[in-house]
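Complex 168.
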Amino acid sequence: MNLVNQRIMKCMMNKRQTGFWKEKPLQKMTRKEWELLCDGCGRCCLEKLKDAKNGKVYYTNLACRYLDLKTCRCTIYAHRTRIAPDCEWLNPFKIARFRWLPKTCAYRLVMETKDLAWWHPLISGDPETVHLAGISVKNIAVSSLGVPEDEYEDYILDNNLWAKSARI
Ligand code: SF4
Ligand code: SF4
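Predicted structure with iron/sulfur cluster bound:
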């Protein structure tokens, strides 16, 4: 049995999730808990386009210039609000407004009182499972550096990309 199948089996056997994310709301989490909740998918760091008429958000595969495309982690995380003022700063008091977050985002799942998936590092105990499951932007994202904004439309992703390819 390969690693991914082992993780799925483990999660299926442990149906009832326990952990701080089940015991307290986002607003009551400590900073450490809040940070642990991020699955490291990097999808919120993709450039997005919003349809001015209906408000629909389209993800592109262009990543913020500060995203490490191999690890899917921010390279300036501690200083992002100063270096990248356009970066959306997620915090417990604003999260309800971030409807554009992917449906798999742990903050969104907790806000909607849903369970985390088997591949979330808090469930699997392994930060690599988010990549193994095909949830992250690994091998999908390219840097937005040097791409003019009026060309972003050419990089719009298929809305069902993750639904089709991910093992969720
Ligand atoms: S989409 Fe959510 S879980 Fe994924 S990296 Fe962004 S904040 Fe973390
Ligand atoms: S600055 Fe960091 S956290 Fe913000 S969008 Fe860019 S890579 Fe993501």
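The two ends are 17 Å apart (CA to CA).
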